[in-house]
Structure to design on (984 residues):
């Protein structure tokens, strides 16, 4: 007991010295202050009744118990004999654990063929900590054994002995953890997968605002993310090859997809971080130097530079390959479906073209390497992937061309390599698929019926005002032939317009159901567009069968839905045009919008010949099924054909007739298809011959009945105004010198004659769509009118000038000697520099000492004494060369009046009256011309012929009102030169 008191007394003294030494330290001052606060708080709490004295007594009792425990521990004198046991035991651990860990590392490396998993095992805390603890404990034991006698251990020796013992106990715990880790790495695959997926999750978790990751940090995260993916792939490949844990493999595959999805989510919230995690460092190194070259490299070698995405997809491909090696059809199918599901998910996110195309390339590679008879996923990678993804309502249509191209490549592969079972599966899948939708009429009618049922009276009022039924009929007509994105947008625009107009028909309860029907209608129209797009691809497949001489495939395609000997009527989708009218509409539209993958086939072969042949074969098929005479006599071209398609028919008929005659020689293939060769001469060719005049008549009818486009009229006005302002010269010169006066808003000026253009022109120039292009009409009109205006003003000024000879040029200049700063020189249709008697006086506008005048027509200056007389050049249609020497202070001014004639419907554009009126849309205008015909109109024939002519025309009126008012003391000279070629 005495020893214990001495020990504590010594300890307290040391503590007091330490406190006195460290009293000035700020941290210790805070500790003392907090202690004081604690004692004061306890005292106040006691006074206020919050704490009772028994509570304080209990706290003191706890301290007393702790003190008793410490006294008991200190009273024990460790027997240093145990140190030998510790050293022996720990040496045994080193002898067992270290070689065992090395053996495990070797086994893991051999088992998973993965350095990543080996590295992760080596980084486990217990694997790293155990050798350190063993070393420390052995060194401490040896020091105690060597320096401190066994019978006199005390003070620091006793403390070191206790530390050695505690480390020994902790080492036992770590040893337990060590063996547990070994067991998990050897036997528990799920543990490894969980650890790796957790690592990936942490890497993809957003950083806090105060912990923004720099580019180097993101580079490290990318490396760790890729390593985790590769390790997961290594494990799942091992499990697949050993044919065990199929459920775990499927779970792992789903979790890979989940992590890829989590990775893609970063694109929305942290786009810059997403790019850094996705793309290779090589790309960013090149990008910093040359952005254009970097983008090109990214497109050329997408797989290399999409580091993280490529790593993720590669693991799926490795697992699939492993499944194929061991004939594990279930896993092979599951992985393939996973890749397709991943493609489906990514194709629902816009602006991911590189990722989508990379996956499409992967699918194409799988298709090429898949044996149709051995692989259970051959159907998936060849056929169903397209329907599953594209006909999903969430599919982003911006990727449709990419999907079409790769789907068509797949069909080409099937046909080229005679994969008959896959071709039959393709046809069957397309005709019988429940995913496809090929009509929206029913839903349109259901929606209108629903609206009528909600509030018939209101619907009737809206229909009478806004012609709802007419809009619906127009929509149905457009849906039937919807094949382009623009046509889809047009249809959806009609739907949105109708939906908005019909909103007053619904109460609050009905609006929710109406919204569902409206969304379904939009989805069905979009699906109908996709279905028609699919028919385009199948038409191309038929043409490709002709190219590859696989007429048996064409026969199967034609006859699968309804074989000629079938005793039942089969339902299914019509993936071929169902009538001669639909076929013509379809062919001449697809021929106009043919995609790049349909233009050229392998070995530089073109596709147009085979498309034409397939069109003729389908036509023969329709003639053979229906009454041939009725088709020829009663056939009428569809109203949905536009002018370009009609013009295409006109110019294609002769080549089709020529090809049809040649088709008669192909008797064997016609026999395979079951087509009667006699129908070519008796039906097909006569029918083709009737198409040309019918198409010509339809174009004339369109020209007479079609309304002009307000958009085209506005474009004409805009182009005219811009061109006029750029081309007018005299007006700008006068304006520059302050010689223009604007009286447009001063009221009507009846006495001023309008100046401009009134003529009859082509109506088609103002159509939104037409087979002929009328380019730059507004520009031409604006330029021409500006030139005529220049000529008009110049002639008025010339009439006021005194005419002199070129030899009197200097004399004329001398007349203005007292007023040289007001002189300007105009040259018309000539280069003044070539005619000046003293060329040294002329300074071109390119010379530095020439004053800068930013006006069109400015050529330079004529220097007299210290004055620079500006020279302007104007060209007109006369070709007559003249020189005007004018005193701008005594010239006069150009006064601009309003072009209005007082009409309420007048169309004013700046200083101009611009009106484009279609005769077919303005009966009053039509009657005025027919009742008071001009000679050029009567020369066309009778009034019916005159009317038909005018229905194809528009009346263009463009005019302004201005007057040149001369100065009362006008002074100027005119020099007329003999005519000569201005280029000489």
């Amino acid at each position: 007991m005495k020893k214990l008191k001495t020990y504590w007394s010594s300890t307290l003294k040391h503590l007091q010295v330490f406190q006195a030494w460290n009293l000035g330290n700020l941290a210790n001052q805070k500790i003392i202050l907090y202690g004081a606060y604690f004692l004061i708080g306890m005292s106040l709490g006691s006074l206020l009744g919050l704490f009772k004295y028994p509570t304080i007594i209990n706290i003191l009792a706890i301290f007393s118990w702790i003190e008793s425990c410490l006294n008991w521990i200190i009273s024990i004198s460790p027997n240093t004999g145990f140190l030998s046991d510790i050293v022996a035991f720990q040496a045994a651990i080193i002898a067992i654990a270290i070689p065992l860990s090395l053996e495990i590392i070797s086994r893991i490396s051999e088992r998973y063929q993965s350095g990543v998993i080996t590295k992760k095992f080596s980084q486990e805390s217990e694997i790293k900590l155990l050798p350190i603890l063993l070393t420390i404990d052995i060194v401490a034991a040896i020091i105690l054994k060597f320096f401190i006698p066994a019978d006199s251990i005390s003070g620091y020796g006793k403390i070191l002995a206790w530390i050695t013992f505690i480390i020994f106990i902790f080492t036992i715990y770590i040893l337990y953890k060590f063996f547990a880790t070994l067991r998990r790495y050897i036997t528990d695959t799920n543990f490894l997968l969980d650890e790796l997926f957790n690592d990936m999750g942490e890497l993809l978790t957003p950083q806090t605002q105060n912990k923004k990751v720099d580019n180097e940090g993101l580079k490290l995260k990318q490396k760790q993310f890729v390593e985790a993916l590769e390790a997961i792939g290594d494990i799942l490949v091992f499990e697949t090859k050993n044919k065990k844990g199929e459920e775990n493999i499927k779970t792992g595959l789903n979790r890979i997809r989940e992590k890829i999805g989590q990775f893609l989510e970063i694109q929305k919230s942290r786009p810059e971080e997403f790019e850094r995690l996705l793309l290779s460092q090589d790309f960013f190194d090149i990008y910093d130097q040359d952005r254009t070259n970097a983008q090109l490299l990214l497109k050329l070698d997408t797989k290399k530079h999409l580091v993280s995405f490529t790593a993720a997809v590669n693991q799926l491909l490795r697992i699939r390959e492993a499944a194929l090696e061991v004939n594990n059809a279930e896993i092979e199918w599951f992985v393939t479906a996973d890749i397709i599901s991943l493609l489906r998910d990514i194709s629902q996110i816009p602006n991911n073209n590189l990722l989508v195309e990379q996956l499409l390339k992967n699918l194409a590679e799988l298709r090429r390497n898949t044996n149709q008879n051995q692989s259970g996923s051959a159907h998936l990678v060849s056929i169903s992937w397209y329907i599953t993804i594209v006909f999903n309502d969430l599919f982003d249509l911006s990727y449709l061309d990419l999907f079409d191209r790769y789907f068509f490549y797949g069909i080409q592969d099937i046909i080229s390599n005679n994969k008959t079972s896959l071709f039959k599966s393709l046809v069957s899948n397309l005709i019988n698929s429940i995913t496809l939708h090929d009509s929206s009429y029913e839903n349109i009618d259901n929606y209108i019926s629903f609206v009528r049922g909600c509030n018939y009276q209101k619907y009737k009022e809206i229909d009478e005002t806004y012609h709802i039924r007419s809009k619906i009929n127009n929509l149905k007509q457009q849906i039937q032939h919807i094949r382009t994105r623009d046509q889809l947008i047009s249809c959806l625009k009609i739907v949105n317009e109708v939906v908005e107009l019909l909103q007053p028909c619904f109460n609050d309860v009905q609006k929710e159901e109406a919204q569902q029907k409206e969304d379904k209608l939009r989805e069905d129209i979009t699906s109908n567009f996709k279905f028609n797009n699919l028919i385009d691809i199948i038409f191309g497949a038929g043409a490709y069968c002709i190219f590859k001489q696989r007429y048996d495939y064409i026969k199967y395609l034609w006859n699968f839905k309804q074989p000629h000997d079938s005793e039942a009527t089969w339902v299914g989708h019509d993936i071929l045009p169902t009538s001669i009218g639909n076929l013509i509409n379809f062919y001449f539209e697809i021929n106009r919008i043919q995609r790049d993958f349909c233009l050229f086939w392998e070995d530089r072969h073109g596709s147009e010949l085979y498309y034409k042949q397939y069109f003729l074969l389908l036509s023969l098929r329709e003639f053979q099924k229906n009454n041939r005479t009725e088709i020829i006599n009663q056939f009428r071209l569809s109203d949905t054909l536009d002018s370009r398609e009609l013009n295409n028919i006109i110019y294609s008929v002769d080549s089709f007739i020529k090809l049809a005659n040649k088709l008669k020689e192909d008797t064997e293939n016609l026999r395979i298809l079951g087509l009667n060769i006699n129908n070519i001469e008796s039906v097909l060719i006569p029918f083709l011959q009737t198409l040309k005049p019918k198409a010509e008549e339809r174009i004339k009818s369109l020209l007479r009945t079609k309304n002009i486009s307000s958009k085209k009229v506005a474009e004409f006005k805009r182009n005219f105004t811009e061109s006029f302002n750029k081309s007018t010269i005299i007006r700008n010169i006068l304006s520059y010198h302050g010689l223009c006066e604007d009286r447009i808003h001063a009221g009507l000026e009846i006495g001023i004659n309008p100046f401009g253009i009134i003529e009859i022109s082509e109506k088609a120039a103002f159509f939104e769509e037409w087979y002929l292009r009328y380019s730059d009409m507004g520009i031409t009109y604006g330029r021409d009118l500006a030139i005529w205006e220049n000529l008009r003003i110049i002639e008025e000024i010339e009439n006021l000038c005194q005419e002199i000879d070129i030899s009197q040029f200097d004399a004329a200049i001398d007349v203005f000697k007292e007023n040289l700063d007001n002189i300007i020189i105009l040259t018309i249709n000539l280069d003044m520099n070539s005619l000046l008697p003293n060329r040294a006086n002329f300074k071109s506008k390119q010379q530095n000492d020439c004053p800068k005048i930013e006006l069109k027509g400015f050529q330079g200056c004529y220097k007299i004494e210290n004055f620079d007389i500006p020279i302007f050049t104007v060209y007109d249609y006369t070709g007559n060369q003249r020189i005007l020497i004018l005193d701008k202070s005594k010239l006069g001014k150009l006064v601009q009046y309003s072009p209005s004639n007082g009409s309420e419907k007048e169309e004013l554009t700046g200083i101009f009256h611009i009106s484009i009126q279609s005769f077919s849309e303005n009966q009053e205008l039509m009657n005025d011309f027919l009742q008071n015909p001009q000679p050029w109109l009567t020369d066309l024939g009778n009034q019916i012929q005159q009317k038909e002519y005018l229905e194809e025309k528009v009346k263009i009126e463009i005019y302004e009102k201005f007057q040149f008012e001369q100065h009362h003391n006008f002074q100027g000279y005119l020099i007329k030169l003999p005519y000569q070629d201005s280029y000489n």
